[in-house]
C-alpha cells in the first residue's frame, strides 16, 4: 500500500470531509513519531506495537565482488515490535473443539 492509498483509507475510516484533512493528520502523526524516535525515545501503543530506536555497532563485512573487507559505521536504527493484538489479527488461529480426556465406554 502506498502512502496515498493509506491517506485515502484513513480519511474514509475517520469519516473526514476532505482528502487534505486526512493528509494533514497523517503528516502530523508521522512527524510526531519521527520526532520521538530522533530523540532516542520509544513509543508504545498497547496491543498494537512499540516503535523504538536501537544502536548498531560498527562492523566489518566482505564485499562479495572485490572480496575486500569493508567497514560499516555504527548507526541508529528504528525498530517496530508488533503487539499481541496485532499479531493475533495477522495470524488468526482456528480453535478446535476441545474434548475432555474421557473415552466413551461401550
From TrEMBL:
Task: Return the InterPro entries for the record.
Answer: Hist_DNA-bd, IHF-like_DNA-bd_dom_sf
Instruction: Give one Pfam family, short name only.
Output: Bac_DNA_binding
Q: Keywords on this record?
A: DNA condensation, DNA-binding
The cross-references to SMART domains, in alphabetical order and at most eight, read: BHL
Q: Which domain of life is it from?
A: Bacteria
An MF annotation (GO) of this entry: DNA binding
Q: Which residues form a coiled coil?
A: none
UniProt key word DNA-binding? yes
Recorded hits in CDD domains, A to Z, give: HU
Under SUPFAM superfamilies, the record lists:
IHF-like DNA-binding proteins
Q: Which family does it belong to?
A: Belongs to the bacterial histone-like protein family.
What name does this protein carry? HU family DNA-binding protein
Q: Which organism is it from?
A: Fusobacterium mortiferum
Amino acid at each position: 500500500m502506498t502512502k496515498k492509498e493509506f491517506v485515502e483509507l484513513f480519511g474514509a475510516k475517520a469519516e473526514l470531509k476532505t482528502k487534505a484533512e486526512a493528509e494533514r493528520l497523517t503528516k502530523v502523526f508521522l512527524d510526531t513519531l519521527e520526532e520521538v524516535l530522533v530523540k532516542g525515545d520509544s513509543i508504545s501503543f498497547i496491543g498494537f506495537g512499540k516503535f523504538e530506536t536501537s544502536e548498531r555497532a560498527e562492523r566489518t563485512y566482505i564485499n562479495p565482488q572485490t572480496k575486500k573487507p569493508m567497514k560499516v559505521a555504527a548507526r541508529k536504527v528504528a525498530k517496530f515490535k508488533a503487539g499481541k493484538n496485532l499479531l493475533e489479527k495477522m495470524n488468526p488461529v482456528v480453535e478446535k473443539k476441545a474434548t475432555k480426556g474421557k473415552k466413551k465406554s461401550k
